[in-house]
Structure formats: C-alpha cells, structure tokens
Amino acid sequence: MLKKIKETANYILQQTQTEAKIGIILGTGLGGLVQEIDIKSTMDYDQIPNFPVSTVEGHHGRLIFGSLGGKEVVAMQGRFHYYEGYGMDQVTFPVRVFKMMGIDTLLVSNASGGLNPDFVVGDVMVIEDHINMFGTNPLIGKNMEELGPRFPDMSQAYSKKLIAKAFEISERNNVQLKRGVYVGTTGPTFETPAEYKMFRVLGADVVGMSTVPEVIVARHMDVTCFGVSIVTDSGVPGEIVEVSHEEVQIVAAKAEPTMTLVIKELVASL
Ligand code: HPA
C-alpha cells in the first residue's frame, strides 16, 4: 500500500512538477471552482497509476493542477464514494497520495440533506465537526506508522482557524454561511424520515455520503482540513419531499457562487 502511494505521488510529481501545498476535493457544488483555477495541466484518473476510476454521473474524474487565488493547488474533480463499491483504502487513496506530494491542507465540499430546522435548502454550511456512521473506518488494519499514529486524535478534525477565516470571508462579502455537524453514512439510499430523525437526535445538522473517510485519513497524517456542505434537500420532519440525484445537482449548482467565493478567498488567505 505504502509503495503504491509513493509510486503514484512520484509519478504525479514527475509529470507535473507541482509544488502545491493545498489539495481540494471538488465535490458536488464546487464544479464552478474549476473556472476560477488558472489551469496548468490535468490528468485523467485512468492515466494515473494505482488510481481508482470514478463512475458517478456529475463527476468527471481528473486531477487539476494550477493556481487559485495566487496559490498553487491540486484539485480532484470527482471523488470516490464508498457506495460505488470502492474499499475505504480506495476511497481515501488520493488523499494519501496528496500528502506524499507535499499537501498540508485539504479543502472538501459535498452535498447533504438538512437536519437542523433552521436550515433551508440551498444553504451552505461550514463543517465544524463530523460523526462517522459508515459503520467502518478507513484506518482499520495494520497501522502505517510512516503516515501517522495508531490512535489519531480527532479533537479538531476541522481546523478552527480555517473555520474562523471562512466566517470572516462571509461577513466581508455579505454572504450567509451556516455552521454545524456533518454525519457521514454509506448511502446510496437517501434517508427514510425515521433515519433523518435519528441523525438529528444523534447531534448532526446535515447528512451526506462522503467526506468523513477522506478527513479521517487526512487527520491521521496531520493534514489540516476544511469542509463545506450544500444543503440540497430537507430531512426535517414535515418538510421532507421526494429527493433525487438530479434535484441534488440542481440545488447544488445554485449554491456554487457562494461555495466558490469562500474556497477561493480561503485559499488566497493561506
Ligand atoms: N442524505 C444523504 N446524502 C445526501 C442527501 C441526503 O438527504 N442529500 C445530498 N446528499
């Protein structure tokens, strides 16, 4: 595993000469950020040794190298979801490769169902913390000591400093951001009303099907993390209506300008 991670990182470094310290996972709602990146080069996932290949609609599957807000970045356009059938090691493989390439900060975005009754569809929430409800953990197995400790601390999974910066940015630009807890679950089913209620009772503000594995692996390697989530549908009792992947994409697209602004300014401030 470690050999594969190094092999892939070395290949990418050789091909691109990137010196990026910032990695971005362009989940749902951050597609528009691509237009803001001054792109130097791209690499399709299927060209990269050991990389899994993305299968989901609305995700392209390539790495983008370039600069954003004056900083060199590497961005994943399309991520690997557990529900696609990838193992946790595959879902998180690119994050480990990022670290080996010299990345020290990871920015992620995703779409989610709203559980907090104060949230409305279209809101953008800064992830303050998460709850892992995948029923597994990407760090299960022999610990790779070279990457991080057996029992990683998770007391500040999402950087307080970056969260504070995001709110400074939102105030300066007059855009509204919510804050709260993201619960990550496998999917691919959206939740039943009873499940939405359960996740609310457990202490979450939104529920989604990604991000938690990547952030766990990033924190294992002491990579600083920041996440934003677009509330694309409501799981609040009385407000639940039928939801589809298409609807999620449509709502997420509308929130793109806010997401793009926050991430761009955040990168510029790093
Ligand atoms: N549940 C889980 N994942 C999601 C949802 C949801 O309601 N909306 C977008 N991703």
Per-chain topology:
Blueprint: H1 2-16, E1 22-26, E2 38-44, E3 62-68, E4 71-77, H2 88-91, H3 93-101, E5 105-114, E6 124-132, H4 160-172, E7 178-184, H5 193-201, E8 206-208, H6 212-220, E9 224-234, H7 245-269
Parallel strand pairs: 1-4, 1-5, 5-9, 6-7, 7-8
Antiparallel strand pairs: 2-3, 3-4, 5-8, 6-9
Key features?
270 residues; alpha/beta; Rossmann fold; five-stranded mixed barrel; 7 helices; 31% helix; binds hypoxanthine
Describe this structure in words.
- The protein is an alpha/beta fold.
- The protein is built from seven helices and nine strands.
- A five-stranded mixed beta barrel has the order 5-8-7-6-9, surrounded by four helices.
- Helix 1 crosses helix 3 (93-101).
- The two termini are 31 Å apart.
- The model has no long low-confidence stretch (mean pLDDT 94).
- The chain binds hypoxanthine (HPA).
- The site of hypoxanthine (HPA) has 14 residues, from strand 5, strand 8 and strand 9.
Can you describe this structure in just a few lines?
With about 270 residues, this protein is an alpha/beta fold.
